Amino acid sequence: MKALMAATMEPAPYSGNDLERVFREYHAPVFRAAYRITGNADDAEDVLQTVFLRMLKRDPAAQPVGNLASFLHRAAVNAALDLVRARQHIRSVPLDTLEPVLAEPAHRNPDRLQDSSEIRQWLRGALARLNPRIAEMFMLRFFDGKENPEIAQLMNTTPGTVAVTISRTRDRLEKEFQAYLGGVA
Fold it and tell me: Is 167 helix (H, G, I), strand (E, B) or coil?
């Protein structure tokens, strides 16, 4: 059963030329997905390398996936979350507080810049503590601006499941952020 799941969920191994073509086509979205989570170009590069090295080392018996873009996005998200989890232990922050700060222009005052940095760091830690599938849904919705039906299609689930998951996750993150701001665990 496990071998069957691996065969349907992972890409087949790629030759040097095939992998180069796939890399050229998908390296930018893989990097962006990793950067959104890590907030650091060096870490995003590490994730990018990890994702494509794993593709190169795939078992020759593995079958190709149907949606390579979705697979690579998920691989980047999971690898980035793993990296963040391994490097830090951070408390959480609410989304309503984050939206205005994340949308602010770069010329904001230094106090707001520091607050923004702390909130982004908190959010990275909060996302790293989530189940990777839930974190991916949340990021697709709030970072990539995708709608629930599109997220459902990418993640092979229903729009209703996506809506409920995102709503619960948002509520959870908001409570965690309020606790973080108030110092209450």
Answer: helix
Same domain, 54 and 95: no
Q: Are residues 95 and 70 in the same domain?
A: no
Are 67 and 80 members of one domain? yes
Q: Please tell me the predicted confidence (pLDDT) of residue 66.
A: 74
* Per-residue pLDDT reduced to its tens digit, 100-119: 545 555 455 545 545 677 88
Q: Flag whether the pTM goes above 0.70.
A: no
Residue 136's alpha-carbon distances to 21, 48, 81, 100, 183, in angstroms, are 26, 17, 10, 21, 28
Domain identity same for 79 and 111: no
CA 6, chain centre distance (Å):
21
Dihedral sign computed on CA atoms, order 106, 80, 75, 151: negative
- Structure tokens, 30: 């893989």
Residue 89 clears pLDDT 50, i.e. is over it:
no
Rounded CA separation 162/179 (Å): 26
CA 101/CA 95 separation, integer angstroms: 10
Whether residues 76 and 118 share a domain: the answer is: no
Q: What was the pLDDT predicted at 58?
A: 72
**What average pLDDT is seen over the chain?**
75
Give the structural domain span for 122.
90-185
| Residue 106 and residue 77 share a domain | no
